[in-house]
Amino acid sequence: MSTALKVRLEQLLAQFEGARVTRKNARRIRVDVGSDALPGLLELLQGHASYVHLSAISCIDWIEAQQFELVYHLWSYETRTLVSAHTRIAREPGVYLSVYDLYRPAAFFERDIHEMFGVYFEGSPDMEKFILTEWDGPPPMRKDFDSEAFVNQTFSWEQYRPQWLKDLEEEGGGISIRPEDIRP
Amino acid sequence: MSTLDQIPVRHEARAAEPQPRGRNPFANVFDELMNFARSRSMFMLHYCTGCGAIELPPAMTSRFDMERLGIQPMVTPRQADILLITGYVSIKTLKRVILTYEQMPSPKYVIGICSCTVNGGMYWQSYATAKVLRDYMPVDMYIAGCMPRPEAVITGLRQLMDDIKSGRADAWKKYYQQYDHYLGNQQKLFGDHWQTPTDIIAEAKHYQLITEQTLGKHTALLEQHQKPLEPLEMRLKHKDHVLP
Fold it and tell me: Is B188 exposed, middle or buried (0-12, 13-18, 19+ CB in 10 A)?
């Protein structure tokens, strides 16, 4: 059964227009598709190639390209292979389609990505705060949010300079790279 | 005898000034005895944050056996003496930690375990974790390490026992004496509307620990925003649930 499914997957990916298929290893396949074709690809994979389990949706902020990369990790219990479907959307306005109608767990993943990156998923049932319920700053996983600057502005530091550290520094040792040295 | 006024009160007894401690020759004797007893029966609140909590089960159970020192886990803050902060405290958790700390009866002792409670530790860059625990509540002792092994935890607890016995562990008084400072730091992090159900100023009056640093501009801000506490609504059955 699984052999037939594997063949089916090959045919399906070969026929799908605009899909770039990379084989990571025997059980991992990476597919790059355009953002308009991704929901169609997921529907085909779910309906015709037994990829019924959406493990996770991850998001990467490519700030230089002004894009968000969304990765849909799909698992098949029949063929025991993982397909990662990658797509890129524009960083502004950062709106994309929900896949909640295909995969119910997507609701949580999309809510999480909305909270951490500010990507809005149209059609997702709930885009409210998920974990950061008491946070009213910008989405913290975006690359343009400077966590360190926020920390330095919000918190004070313990002035901890014990004698042994001073002794070490006198001998030329101590902390070799300070955080402020590597900051641009 | 239907009103309070009609209840006979012995006025001469009430009018008597409380004796200053120093004049009573036995006060110090009892204090020492009480400190000794206190140090030998500490209830540790079972509240764990971060990763250092993983070192507590071996410290508590048969391998290192905290109970031989008289230290036991306790499930509620109202019956606990020590609060162990075992690792990083996120801002959301810090609110709960402060609520918990304020609910504990005095004298209470706080131990900060792991580097994260000292200075943020490996999460120093994180937007979500509070860095210096000492800013928000008085800490009796830090046990540094990432994470400290049970031996270090036991050693730290033994040190705390010695401090209690000799009367040095009195950081809890600082919370009342310098409440304005701690409240100011809390308000800076949680916003001006921060309010806890415990009335710290009244408690400070009760313990006679009010100083000029207890009240200040931050407590004035608290009084401005303070909402009176309301009792929780008691409902015998859920509104949709119909009893058979």
Answer: middle
State yes or no: pLDDT of B159 exceeds 80: yes
Angle CA A86–A89–A94, to nearest 5: 130
CATH number of B41-169: 3.40.50.12280
- Identify which of B90, B178, B194, B189 has the alpha carbon closest to the alpha carbon of residue B137: B178
For range B206-225, the mean pLDDT: 90
Angle, vertex CA A27, rays to CA A22 and CA A31, nearest 5: 30
Domain boundaries, chain B: 41-169, 171-226
Contacts of B125 in chain A (CB under 8 A): 147-148, 151
**Sequence-ordered strand ranges (E) for B20-81:** 42-45, 71-74
Enter the tokens of residue B135. 């800013």
- Is there a domain that residue A101 lies in? yes
Selecting from A134, A147, A155 the residue whose C-beta is nearest the C-beta of B92 gives: A134
CA distances to A88, A94, A143 from A61, rounded to whole Å, are: 10, 11, 6
For residue B231, give every residue at least 6 positions away whose Cβ sits within 8 Å of its Cβ, in sequence order, or none. Answer: none
The A-side interface with B (CB below 8 A) comprises: 132-135, 137, 140, 145, 147-148, 150-151, 154-158, 160, 179
- Name chain A contacts of B135, Cβ cutoff 8 Å: 156
Domain containing residue A95: CATH number = 3.30.460.80
CA atoms within 13 A on the CB side of A15: 10
| Model confidence pLDDT, tens digit, residues B176-204 | 999 999 999 999 999 888 999 888 999 99
